[in-house]
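User: Please run a holo structure prediction.
Assistant: Happy to. Please share the sequence and the ligand.
User: Here you go; the ligand is iron/sulfur cluster.
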Amino acid sequence: MPFIIDQKICAACGSCVGNCPNRAIVMRGDRYVITEMCCDCGVCIEYCSTNAIKKGPTRAEFDNRKVASALREKLSLNRHIAAMKFADKAPDGVPDEKGPQFWCAICGDIFDGEGSPLFFRGVASSCGGSKNIGIGSAIATREDFETAINASVVGEGNLYASKELLAKNRNLFPRYSKVYGGVVIGSLEQVSRPDIILFPINGHQMSMVSTAYSFDTAELIMGYAGKSTCLMSITIPFVENKPIFTCGDHGGRTFMRLKDEEILVCFPYRLVPGLVKNLDRTVYAQK
Ligand code: SF4
Ligand code: SF4
């Protein structure tokens, strides 16, 4: 694993444990150890008063092409993996998506192996989902907002029975610490060090992923259902650094062109090297 704890020096104080953003430090017997979920960030070193934490013999694999290839091979994925990287301006060589467009439709193209990375801003978005992925949206007057709410969001046959329920539901999801200028969306092979990755997956593949993720840490992957795909798939991985799976909503499934047997899994990228390693360490890897 990337970082290690020198057991001769460790005082077993536990101060590093809660400060690891990847929850990669766990207790085994009476020792604290660092698992494969370590992403080499080095944060834990600052919290160890005995200098027991050191770089290990290997590094977490963050080469996006290698990671994409390993995931596709180990999970027998026949769809492509989408990657998203938040930024305030488009990186060199990445064109602005002019819109109007849906972020989920861009992901749908990527899952099908089409297109190159785009920089997607709120103003190019044709739905409120751009707010749900932390990039704001086109400026609308209060009147425009009320019209949209009444026409397609609130009321019989729409998404919520009332505005109060809309607000209550949105409060179930964490807030972004800032509004980003936009997000690069492309295939994992084409987006280096993304923030999150998403891909369609069937039940068997989801079982492989969740077993590999829980293997070292006993953490569960939570599933979210009941609202828009952007809220359910992006906010928690990006804001809380936790993977999720979701069946999405009607619009998200349509634009992502998900097949009936597919659900969507979304991982913070910093957890993916550990996931890839652990796919080889579980019952699913046995012949
Ligand atoms: S992920 Fe970062 S904080 Fe956690 S064990 Fe590895 S280096 Fe330390
Ligand atoms: S902070 Fe240092 S001494 Fe304390 S448990 Fe972690 S590695 Fe051990």
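The chain has a mean pLDDT of 94.
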